[in-house]
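A protein record pairs a chain with a discrete description of its three-dimensional fold. The shape at a given residue is found from the number at the same position. Here is what such a record looks like in full:
>
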Amino acid sequence: MIIKTLNREESQVAMKEWILNFPALPKIEEDYLKIREDLQEFYKNVKEECNTNNKRDYYIDSHFGILLYDYLWRQSGFSLRVAANDDFWRYLSIKVIPDIIAERWGKENESHYWSRSTRIWLRSIWWYVHLSWQGDMTSTTHLLESPCFSTDSILNLEERSGRKGTFINVYRYIMYYYSHIPKEIIEEFNKKINGREEDLFRIIMKLNTAKVMVVDPALYLGGEREYVRSLFTDAGVRV
């Protein structure tokens, strides 16, 4: 796969062109045509497997996300550097599978195609899986299927990198520990803070954002795992 990109200006023009020609899809080269067909098939299968209206959007985001994650790692030329390039996700969103983004978000929702980096849908769900990765597809899928997670979890994980960057293992431990907290404890905690637009997961992420400014998780006594446990302790929950 030859990595292709669209900058912000090119994205704006390309999206207007696609909307003008809707529902026809943009013309692309043969290797990306194969990617389009594969991803369309993945999305179709995920929708068919989603047999409940409860958290339907999250089911689609997480399950299509993990298929996208695995698929792109199998493409030659793809790397973590590419995944960090918003212009790659813009190209994929507008040129390759704009029909899928349109079905999930509507065809004129620019933020989920190109205009807001943290809201570009394909980028968001790929990084959600990467920051939740538990070593293999089966373990990660099982974690993401935990009933404690929702579309809000994706936003909270994605949008709190902090000024010192993203400590990937810290995020993975947060996801791991949070998924193992009994539902009753999470519900009880959330009731205690009723009336505030927060929940336990958001509070943990905010604590981490603040704490990494003064503490290097890798140098914490016990390492990153114990650092994450301390976040839950500070919030009043034992893990």
About this structure: The chain has a mean pLDDT of 93.
